[in-house]
Amino acid sequence: MSAGGLVESAQASGLAGVSAPARVALAAGVPAAAPIRTEDAILAHAARAGADLVGDACVVWRVLEDGRLEPAATFHRDRRLRYALGAVLHQPPLRAGGLWPGQVATSGAPTRVRRSRLGELAVDTGIGMRRAHALLAPVLVDGRALAVIVALRDSGEPEYSLREEVVMRRVAAKVGARAAAPHGGRGHVGGDEDGGGDRGDGAAGDDGPPSGDGWMPPAAWLMDHIGVGIWVADRDGMTTYVNSAMTELLGVPAADVVGRPMSDFLEDVPQMVRGEYCMDAERCDRRLTQPDGRHVWLEMTSLPLVDDDGARRGVVSTTVDVTARKQVELAARQRVPRAHRRV
């Protein structure tokens, strides 16, 4: 059949609105590749930006209407591992709120995770890492999480810093702006032109909610964006809420903490959790063990939750990591007996 006959056949079949290569493929019985959505292209650029700027690898999860997350894009700086990481795209959707990506999609707050198993990050493939440091940033559009960017770095390298978190928050903000713009926008997803986009070199600043005279952020936003861990439990010590900072200290996603007793994580729980009546603030250093075996010392301040009738309903604790200070104190105590022996 001549080329002209092929075109006539396509027009007769209602394919005139399809591009020329696609018309030829369809007329020849070869299925044409599915068109790439603008959103897919934006998320693919985000995956590359996350890997190039702060990580070795990056996975981007799209948040579906029902709250589940599906893998949308991957990128690895090592070409040999790029294909292996791409296997994540064939994984089933992640349940809403599940694991670390689900937590970030629910809270809308970036999270830094130390030495996490790849399974807890919903990365079920071999990419040369057994554990990884992770930096997760949500892509927000009109207050709703459109996607979650997960940058991964080998656990043998330094942990993620606040400076690198700022870089990823800016990348996520640019992705959100492009996704919300007409036709997906045309801006470049990456670091700032002034050098803030260099690997690990972020500039100061924040892409949080807009500020202004008399404006206050919502309480839920504050709870997940402050740098102090917040842990709420009922009268029996069962966890009812943890914010993002607390999950970073525990090394466990919120979905695996809520509903479990504080004693599952702490070597010593607050007095009021042990059944002792206490109406004053209780301040104490307590130790927990993260999943990778690392011991973390927390300075914990606990207060009772009391309703309008004066009945105690639970306990709320704020926590700060004081591991460095505690190590100095313990080292000083160990040196005292040696000094006495030399006298």
What descriptive keywords fit this protein?
343 residues; alpha+beta; five-stranded antiparallel β-sheet; 9 helices; 10 strands; 30% helix; 24% strand; disordered N terminus
Topology:
Layout (H helix, E strand, L loop, with lengths): L2 H10 L7 H8 L10 H16 L3 E7 L5 E8 L2 H7 L13 H9 L3 E7 L13 E11 L2 E11 L7 H19 L38 H7 L3 E6 L4 E4 L1 H7 L31 E8 L5 E12 L5 E10 L1 H20 L1
Antiparallel strand pairs: 1-2, 1-5, 3-4, 4-5, 6-7, 6-10, 8-9, 9-10
Description:
With 343 residues, the protein is of the alpha+beta class. The protein is 30% helix and 24% strand. A five-stranded antiparallel beta sheet has the order 2-1-5-4-3, with helices on both faces. A five-stranded antiparallel beta sheet has the order 7-6-10-9-8. A hairpin with a 5-residue loop joins strand 8 and strand 9. Helix 1 crosses helix 2 and helix 3 packs antiparallel against helix 6.
Total helix count? 9
Task: Round the Cα radius of gyration to an integer and report it.
Answer: 25 Å
Largest β-sheet summary: 5 strands, antiparallel
Structural class computed from helices and strand pairing: alpha+beta
User: What string, H for helix and E for strand, traces the elements in order?
Assistant: HHHEEHHEEEHHEEHEEEH
Which range best describes the helical content: under 10%, 10-25%, 25-40%, 40-55%, 55-70% or over 70%?
25-40%
- Shape category: globular
Strand order of the largest sheet: 2-1-5-4-3
Uncertain segments = 1-26, 193-208
Whole-number mean pLDDT:
79
Total beta-strand segments: 10
Q: How much of the sequence is in beta strands?
A: 15-25%
Distance between the termini: 106 Å
